[in-house]
Structures are given as structure tokens and as C-alpha cells.
Amino acid sequence: MSLWRQIRYGLRALSNRAAADRDAIDEVAHYVELTVASLVARGIPPEEARRMAQMEIGNATVLREEVRSQGWESSVEALHADLRYALRRLRAAPAFTAVTLLTLSLGIGGTTAIFSAVNRVLFESLPYPNANRIAMIAEVASSGARNPGTFGMYEGLRERSRSFESMAVLKPWQPTITGTEQSERLHGQRVSASYFHVLGVRPALGRDLLAGDDVRQGPPVVVISDALWRRRFAADASIVGRRVSLDDDLYEIVGVLPRQFENVLAPDAELWAPLQYDMSNQRAWGHHLRTIGRLDAGVSMDQATRDVSAAGRAVLDQQHPVTYDPNTRFAVVSLREELTRAVKPAMLAILAAVIVVLVIACVNVTNLLLARGVERRAEFALRAALGAGGGRLVRQLLTESLVLAILGGAAGMFIAAAGVRALVALSPPGLPRAADIGVDAPMFLFALGITTLIGVSLGVVPALQAVRSDPQRDLQGGSRRTAGRRRTARSALVVAEVALALILLVTSGLLLRSLRHLFAVPIGFDSSHLLTVQVQVSGRRFGADSTTHRFFDQTLHAVRDVPGVTSAAFTSQLPMSGDLDEYGTAFEATVTQPAASYSAYRYAVSPRYLETMGIRLVRGRLLDEGDRADAPRVALISESLARLRFGSESPIGRSVTIGGGPGSAPFMIVGVVGDVRQVSLALVQTEAVYTTATQWRWADNAISLVIRTRGNAEALIPAVRQAIRSVDRDQPIVRVATMDDLVARSAAERRFALTLFEAFAFAALVLAAAGIYGVLATSVAERTREIGVRSALGASQLSILALVARQGMTLALAGSTIGLIGALGASRAISALLFGVSPLDPATYAGVVALMLAVASAATWIPAWRAARVDPATTLRSE
Amino acid sequence: MDEPNTDVIQGTLDMLILKTLSLEPMHGFGIARRIEQISRGVFKVNPGSLLTAFQRLERAGWLDSEWRQSENARRAKFYSLTRAGRKQLDVETEDWTRRSAAVARLLRAEA
Predict the structure, then answer these.
(1) Are residue A95 and residue A23 in the same domain, yes or no?
(2) Could you report the predicted ipTM of this complex, rounded to two decimals?
(3) Cα–Cα distance for residue pair A674/A186, rounded to 1 Å
(4) Domains, chain B, ordered by start
(5) B contact residues 52-81, partner A, Cβ 8 Å cutoff
(6) Is the pTM of this model over 0.80?
(7) Whose C-alpha in A374, A617, A853, B3 is 20 to 30 A from the C-alpha of B50?
(8) Rounded distance between C-alpha atoms, residue A186 and residue A178, angstroms
(9) Whether residue A112 sits in one domain with residue A39
(10) For all residues of chain A together, what is the average pLDDT?
(11) What's the whole-number mean pLDDT along residues A256-261?
């Protein structure tokens, strides 16, 4: 009953504050009046009676407040008042509020977004049971390049190595599904039966692939993903046993994978069929498979590497496959590391950069709050003098700090969410597991917590000072004191900020110059006005090579007829596209040199390919229509391969054998052509051989058309698609892209890192400038009187300007010096991301220092100018 | 020259208010006056303590209040005892009687 009354009374007072106030006022006034009346009744003159009543009752306002402060609602009212006051104070200082909120939200949001991505990509373990035991088996050629595995080596390793519970090989597979619905080209994988066992995943419906499925001429079976099951088969629970048509063959669906299954080795894959490897057609030693394995419990990656190396060496010694560099090394690497190998240096550098930004943000908030504390000393002294207790002042300031933190945190949350989305959108194609990066809640709380802690601990400083110090002195004005020590602390913080910003600027400057250098690299062909389209043949109709050749030939002619196309050709392997087809090239002994073999990219091309691409002819001739299947077999080699094998001698007329095994007759070298970057602009590996597609031993079932256009290459895409469909509407178009896009994409990781570094460096520069400005502005405000006295004593405006400017530039120079030292270390740490630029590139360092000093002088100018305009008469009179 | 102490004994103000109101509803000044008169000037009530005590007792459910015209035609807040207040008065009176008797006994024994 009494609790209920408490709530009711409290709510009534809260909901009608005016009435509650009036009641208290009336009650007190009535009391005073009756007291006076009773005194008058005793014969005391009214004047005297009024005075006596006042003595007895004390301050009526205080009494009213005491009456009103009974009950719980008064603390709600106090909080409400604090909040309103805090918001009013923050509105009254819009510059401070805006800068603080911006700093907080950028610091919190940026750090959270980056950390969320980095954590997901680099550190979180893969979504499989005992994922740390899943490894990739890599082959490293003596040049240091990684080669894809071969089926022959997989068989050999499986037989000889003792470290693995199971092993599997896999390759991409893009079947076209046909049937009642619209036909669709799907992404899938051809895998060993043990693939899902290696990953530790079991189908949710039906069965896994079995060893009996994975044999030549084995049953056509397929396991599908949950997504495909829902999209194409309406989540039919009785799907197992149903037949689907893939590339004109009927496959039986034997299993559906669980919904949460994530296929990190090929994120787009939706169906898996047994590899059913054909050992008969000499492809057993072709490098086009990836090999993974699940280690036995307790076996380390190092142990497995030693084991696999010994086994692999034994295989090579026994079989001497010609496609293998005899000095091939083997490495067993955890799958997570292997997947993130390419992006790791960039990700770690980005993480480090964003942490620097967070530190700068913290420093800036510290500085802002310290400066504001100084400005508000008089305000707090006044409030203390009027009777506000220390606890009350601390509570007021805590409220202000928390309001800032909450607003900053909310804005930071938006920035984090937007940042994560932007990261996913911007992320280079090679970024694994990027699709479902989400905001990392613990990191957000950490960033929010650390900035709030700083805000709260620094926010109460002015209140404590006000309580401790002598209010009279503070009220008389801040200008008389020198705030020496606190200014030193703030100056040190600004120096730190400048130093950190400089480090970020230097590193992003180096990245920018790297990217410039990279795009200046001679790519070996003309990438402008070049459209590329990958076309594939699938299905039984293309059983014979001649059918395939005819289809590609017809397609080529159809494309050449498209208006706007100046020339067109095709190749089995397209530069910058991610295609990777390397073969051993064997050369016979000559008078001066013993027989030798080298690894080289193999291109099976249509006759006009080199002309269409604009690849330079160095000597000899190019391929032409006469180099048909029944003509003598001829090949072109790249300049680098010619130099590697023949030095300054002419290779024309010599013979080269490409790949090994039966049927690998030699080709005669008829020409040498310019080097082409195959993998990326940065990778200097250009050894290559070119033959015509018809002279190659088999028909590749996927080719890339290269189409030189008169105008914008992109504009021709619909017409080209139409032309290809007109030849055979069932053959899938796999990939359409302009060559310029492919080139840009090959530098995507560097560009990604650069974009983020530029953003961080810019943020750091702005924050450092804000820091310098803040310290100087406060310092000028504090020293107004001193400056007034100086100019009254005859100091010129210029000398006062110089006084402040010197102070600002000293900070900037000190920070830059320290920053340069830090940048020397930081640039070495990102050397993996640099290209053609020394980590000590003097131009970058000089440019960055100049930029920093320019920004610092701009930040110095406003306070210095304000100081120079101080009017001595006004200042001195105001004291 | 020392003035005699006219402070209300600590902890008894609530009881004195309840007792005074057990006779008839009254406003704040009236209650203060009544306590002063009946105690023959031994106790003089502090207005601050009195007015805040009303808030507390009302919240506790022992008093009700009502705005009425007072004798000088002003709006005045009149307090009256609730049933719970009457019970509380009994409890406090008994407690006080017991304790003051004990104090009186102690003082006699000392003499």
C-alpha cells in the first residue's frame, strides 16, 4: 500500500511539476504569513515581525527545495535536469561537440568495421570440426611459384605419405543444368569421394560420395547444396534418388548438404560430383588440381611437410614426369593460412593502420576534454561558490561525458555497419569468407568502452579541480595564471598525434606510388578496347574434338561479324583472368647446351590471337591459317623463355616438347614474341609457348574470346552475347569482362589496401590538424591578457603572430621528426605490399612532411591571427 | 546566558505530528502552534523539519492532505490522520512509553 502510494505520488509530481511546485510554494508562503500574523498579534510591529519570521524559517527558497526534494522522483528530476543541461552545454559549444562526436564515431566505427573483417578473414577458424587439422598440399617450383597439383602426384602421395587421415583433390566444374525449368549454368566442383570427409561435413539428407563412385566410368551421382536444393527443387524432402540433367548427362542426386555448410574452397559451388579421373589421356601429370588433406590427430604441419616431401621426391624419382620441375618442393600448410596467404599482409597492415587511427582518436578526445576543462574552470568555480557540492558537479560532468559517449557510440555503430558493408563491396575478389562479414559486437563494445572510459575519467577533472581549488581565484579570471604543466601534457599529446598521422601518411604515400608503378608496368599487350568472353562447351554432343573446334570456329566468325568489332581471336588461357595452365617445356641438347626443361604457360590459340592482342613479334613469324592440324607442328615462344634457354642465339628452327607422356611430339619454334604478364602485373613470370588450337593434342573445352573493338568495349557486350547464342544457345557464356577491368582486378588487393590507407591517413591528418588547432586556440584564449600586456608594451602584431605560430610549428616539427622515425619502421613492415618503390623512398617522405607542415601551418594560422588582433585596451580594461 | 534547548527530541517529531492530528485535521502552522502550546513552550518545531516530515508521512500512508480555505481565506493544506496513521500512532506511543519509563527508572536508580 505504501509502495503504491510512493509511486503514485512520485508520478503525480513528475507528471505535473508546475502543480507540485505551486503546492510547495503555497504551503511555505502560508506558513510564513501565519507566523508573521501571530507575531503581530503579540504586539510586535509588522516590519519587525516579518524579520523575526524570516529568522525563524530561514531561506524560503531552500525550504521549498527541501520540501520538494522528498521522494524518489527528485532524483529522476535531477537526472532530467542534468541531461537537459548537458545537451544545452553541448549545443552551446557546437565546434567542440561536432569534433568530439566525429572523432568518437570515426574511431569507434572504423576500428570496429576493420576489426570485424580482419577477425573473420584471418583469425576465425574455418567452420569445420577440428579445422586446424585441414591442410593444403602445395607444390613450389624452383622459381618460387606455386603450381597446382596433379592427379599422378595425388595418387603417389596417398600411397606413400603417413600423415593424413584422408586426402582429396578437387577442380572447378561448371555444368549447365537443363530440364523442365530454364537452363542455368551452375558452379560446382569435381572432387575425390573423400572431399567431405576431409572437411568433416556430412550431408543432411541422403549420403556422402563413396569411394565406389569415384572411379572411371563410375555412376553419375551428385551431392547438392542446401541453397540449390531450396532454389531449384523447392526443398523437396524426397529429392534423394531424383535424376537431373547436367551437360546432357543424367545425374542422380544422392545427398543434400546441411544449410550451415560453407564451402571455403569455392564459395559459389552448389554441387559436387566425383572426380572420376581419366588417367588414360595423358593428363595425369597436368597441373590443374588442388590437393587438400585432413591430418591425423597429433601430426603437426611441419611433420606432414617432411613426410610429404619425402613421398613426393620418391614419386618424382620413380616416374620422372616431364611436367615437373625436378627441384619441386612440397609444403603442407593449414588451409586457413593458405586461403588468406594473399590477403594477409594487406589485412594486417590495414588493421595496424586503423588501430593507429583509434589511438589518434583517443588522444584527440583527451585533448579536447582537457582543453574544455580549462575553459570551464570559471563556470565550475561559480557553481561551487553558489553551493553546488562536489558530488553534484561530478554527476553533472559524468552525465555530459556519457551523453557524448552514447551519441558517439550510436554514430559509431552506423559507421561500423556502413563500413562493413563498404568493405565487403570493396574487397578484392581473393578475399576469403568475405560475403557474410558482420559487425563484431565484442570489438564494438571494446572501442566504445575505451573511448567512454577516457571521456568519463577526463570529464570529471574540471569538477574535481573546482571542488579542490579556491573558487575566488578561479572566478577572478584564468588569464592571470599560467597553465604551464597541463599545457605541456596537451602539447605532448599533439606531438604524438602528428607523429602517428605522419606514419600513416608515409605508408599510404608509398602504397600510392606502388600502384602508380604497377600500372606503368609493360603488360605485353594492348588492354584498351578489348573485350573478353569465356565460352565453354558442355555435353555429349562435344565428345569429338572436331565438334568442339568447329563450334569455337563458328563462334569466332559470328563474333567477327558483330558491327564495331575490328578483330577477334581466342585462347585457351587468358592473361589477367586467373587462368593458370603451366606445362613443362623440354628442349633437346644442342652443341653448346645439354637438354633441359622449363615451366611455361601454354596457350592454344586461334591464328590471329597475337595480332588481336597486340603482342609484339620479336623475330621469326606469327601463327597463321596455314598452321592446321595436318600441317607441320609449330610453336612460338616468349622472349623470356628464349633468353632462358638460348641466350643470345636464335631459337628459330629449334624444337620444343610441351608436356610429357605418349603423343607428345615436338613442335618447331618459328617465332619469338614479347613477354606477357599472365597472373598479375606484379608477378614477373612470363615464360610462355603458343600453338594453334588445332595443332594441340586435344581440344580445350573452354576458351576465351578476345575481341578488339572500335569504340567502348563494354557497349558491345549485348551484341557479342547475341552472336554467340546464335551459334548454339545451350553453350554457356562463362565470363564477360573488359581487359581493362581484368587488369584493374589483378591489382585489387593493393588498391583495396591503398583506399583504406588513404581514408585512414586523411582521418589522421584531419584529427592531427584539429589537435594542433585546439591546443593553440585554448592557449591563445588563456594568454589573452599576457598578449594584451605584450602589445601594450609595444610588441608588434607580427611578433605576436610569430609567437603563436612558433608554438604551433614547434609541435608540428617535433611530431614530424618522431613520425619519420616511426615511418621508417612501418614502411618496412608493409614492404610486401610495395612494388617498385623503396620503403625509404625520399620523394614520398619529403612530400608527406611538406603536406603535414602545410596542414599544421593552416591549423596554426587562425589562432595566431586571433592573437595578433587582441586589442590591449579592451583586454586590460576587462580585468 | 544559555537559551533553554527547545529542539524536539530526536525521532519524536513524527509521533507528535500524528498525535496532534488525531484530534482534528490541521494545517502546518496550526500543528506547530499546537505542539508549542501543549508542551508549554518546551518544544519549538523547526518549520523545515515539519514540512518535510509531512511529505514523508503522507508518502508512508499515515496522513492524507487536502487543500481548503483557511480561517484567513487563504488556500492552505490541511492534513488528517488515516487509519494506518492511527495504528502507527498507537505503535509509536506504546514504544515511547516503554522507553521513557525505562529512561525514568534509570535516572531514579542513579539518584
Answers:
(1) no
(2) 0.87
(3) 37
(4) 13-110 (1.10.10.10)
(5) 52, 55-56, 58-61, 67, 70, 72, 74-77
(6) no
(7) B3
(8) 11
(9) no
(10) 84
(11) 93
